[in-house]
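Could someone model D-xylulose with this protein?
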Amino acid sequence: MFLGIDCSTQSLSAILIDDRKIVYEKSLNYERTFPQYKTNHGFLRTASQVHSPPLMWIEALDRLFQDMRSEDVPLHRILAISGSAQQHGSVYLNDSFSSRLLDHTNTLKENLEHAFSRKTAPIWMDSSTTNECEEIRQALGGKQAALEMTGSDIFERFTGPQIRRFYKTEPEQYQKTTSIALVSSFMASLLSGCIAPIDFGDGSGMSLMDIRKKGWHPKAIEATAPHLLKKLPPLAESSKVIGPVNPYFVKRYALNPEALSLVWTGDNPSSLIGLGLIEEGIVGASLGTSFTYFGALKSFHVDPAGEGHLFVSPTGDYMPLNCFLNGALAIERMRKHYQIDWAEFDKAILKAKPASGILLPYFEPEIIPKVLNPSVQRIGLDEKDVPANCRSLVEGQLLSMRLHSKWMGLKPKVIYATGGVSHDGPILQILADVMNCTVYQSAVAKSTALGAALRAASGYYSSKGHPRSWKETVAGFTDPIPSSRLEPDPKNVQIYNRWIEKYAACERDYLKNLSQ
Ligand code: XUL
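Reply:
Sure, complex below.
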């Protein structure tokens, strides 16, 4: 059996697979399960800063194993474990971290309480580093140079600018930091009992990695903070075996002592595998806290506008990705505003006519297009018209996805939808109509954790000298739900083909006013 764990913004999830099927699934919501951390949806917000407490992730990992044990999950049969995590977030460790990882007489939380040089970890929703982005961009020679070196322009949430801000605002604590981890490599460290490498996929979202050579980029490291190279772990492939699991989990939970602990990656690269997007032609739309749109690409191709990203995929190829911050949380904000539940939201969408107004959905600072001081804009929409507002919100989110993803040149034949919102039929129909493309719902909403379990299997077989192709690895796991197939409605496709021009014009006007 192979275990995949996903440490996302709002929850910690696990999927256990045997050779051909999922045998166990579990999800722990941070806000509900660990109220003592006082997070809202798993994060803490102060002005423009958005952080999460790493101790909460640690406690969640222990709870997950406790629950699996009390639910008689056959932990002794697990051969390998891998994982995925929200991308870009960074965890700052002091010199006691490694030595505190192994003691099984206390909980991991008790062991690690004093192992941090920064109590909280800035996460991908943080947008407080605009100045640092500009400093790094200038040092690298501008946006185009940054794109060519790292696959992306420099973004507020990317790890490099976050590290630079920490160094500038808390230089003493930065100095006390002996190791900086991504959320993914931090969690992998807990499971392997030593400082874990960062994989090439999650490493691509740091503004620190040479995306072609797959090594730390000396110029980017120098532009970010002093002595940084010493604080970073090595880079590695996402299916690399680190070693046997941390004995802590063997002694406390009777996990198989020979189980292998593998390198983790980011949630989006892991989802690529969990959705089975190993060849060009099928595209993934992850409709979770953020909405992301991505696919597999053989060749190096960056977004000339610098809005999107190119990451290394777990298969060793590339994956272009666009991330829209105003995803599920924006829908939740609107539901709260009108005091309606999900079923009522769906009814509202179905009741309203397509394209009855334009809503620019910036409830929170947006990544694409860049909006740092958010405000929701309604054009031709009466705020009191609940159905029209609900439908226009989803249309706005998905028109923006289509508009800004052209650069990828993916020309999908089919879109596989995953993430919490992918259960929502009316929203998926709008996706099919806006994109003019067949849409399927992925059979597993947690494609990130499934991708992790499949990567664990792949790494395990390779390490035993019996490598399996990715096609073989994902076979039988990643077929979407056949009955969820949605075809675009030709009438609505025509409407949206015209409407997208209007949406683009409204967006341009809004952005122009922002920059004046
Ligand atoms: C991707 C991104 C988000 C997070 C969400 O660049 O920032 O999708 O990975 O967990």
